Amino acid sequence: MPFNGLALSRLFFEASLPLLRERIPDIMTRSAAGLVGEGSECLGLDDDISRDHDWGPAFCLWVPDDLLRAELSRVEEAIASLPASFQGFPTRMARERRMGRTGPLPLKGFYRRFLGMDRAPETWREWMAVPEYHLCSCTNGDVFMDEGGEFSAVREALLKYYPDDVRRKKIAARCMIMAQAGQYNLPRSLQRGNSMAAMLAAARFAEAALSMAFLLNRRYMPFYKWAGRLAETLPVLGQQTASTVKVLARTPWDSQNLGAEASEAVEKLCDLVAAELRRQGLCDIQGNWLWQAGPLVQRGVKDPELRARNVMED
């Protein structure tokens, strides 16, 4: 594949821009364009298998909501004049191929779809109410053009990441799950020969560990199926976390010997996480027992109501 989907879509937009500026110049000066949202290409993770559905050169045209309602027919006519293929690939700009992910989109409506509001969250309750993968969907991909500036203003506010209190609360909860599932229940399940419980404990630990890696890097974790691959690109414990999860993924949980090796990998990762918590000034835990680390991290939450929440909840 000569291009990944994001790069291909940027080239397609650049080739389409002169025509759009000719047909709808007044709308283009108030709008933004790019490829952001759902789909592996927005994360730069698309491959040959991705081409079997909802893939190909395309872009989002985020138009102020009132303007789009008033001028939708003009916008659609301009979009319809774009080529049906580009660089040998069918485009995804026709209405029947968009799936709500590309083409003209209401600017505020785009954010409402993912955030439940048309602005960045402001209070800790608003931040906690938004699923993390939705925050990832609003901040992934690339903005090719934003002459109005409104779309990028919300995106830039989201890219500043969680407020410190929210990040600390989430890290505290991840500590508890990693300890409960990986450091405690996984080895006990193996000792009992309970392969089903061991598998579930390993899976719960893996998801919490991946989330911890993203939190430590101040990055939003994507939808679960992409979390492992994207974690490998994280500078802080990304490779180590992904490697540990791979060990868990290939472990036959009916084998106590191999299960013991997996438990050892869990403990080594918890060593690294505890050291990073100390390095980032989140807690002064001695050793790697993350059940102890969770409450210590949560003590640093300044808002009294958020600090008083159950340490295992986020």
The SSE order reads HHEEHEEHEHHHEHHHHHHHH
Strand content: 5-15%
Structural class category: alpha+beta
Low-confidence stretches: none
Helix content: 55-70%
Largest sheet: 4 strands, mixed
Count of helical regions: 15
- State the separation between the terminal residues, measured CA to CA: 41 Å
Shape: elongated
Please count the beta strands (DSSP E, at least 2 residues each). 6
Number of domains: 2
Spatially, the strands of the biggest sheet line up as 5-2-1-6
Question: Overall pLDDT, averaged?
Answer: 94
- Radius of gyration, whole Å: 23 Å
Can you describe this structure?
It is a single chain. The chain contains 15 helices and six strands. The protein has a four-stranded mixed beta sheet, sandwiched between helices. The chain has a two-stranded antiparallel sheet with strand order 3-4. Strand 3 and strand 4 form a beta hairpin. With 314 residues, the chain is an alpha+beta fold. It is 59% helix and 7% strand.
Question: What's this, in brief?
Answer:
The chain has 314 residues and is an alpha+beta fold. The protein is built from 15 helices and six strands. The chain folds into two domains: 5-159, no CATH class; 164-307.
Defining traits:
314 residues; two-stranded antiparallel ribbon; elongated; four-stranded mixed sheet; 2 domains; 6 strands; single chain; alpha+beta
Chain-wise SSE layout:
Layout: H1 5-23, H2 25-28, E1 32-35, E2 60-63, H3 65-80, E3 85-86, E4 89-90, H4 95-98, E5 103-106, H5 107-115, H6 124-129, H7 132-139, E6 142-146, H8 150-159, H9 164-192, H10 195-216, H11 224-231, H12 238-249, H13 256-279, H14 290-298, H15 304-307
Parallel strand pairs: 2-5
Antiparallel strand pairs: 1-2, 1-6, 3-4
Helix pairs in contact: 9-10, 9-13, 9-14, 10-11, 10-12, 10-13, 11-12, 12-13
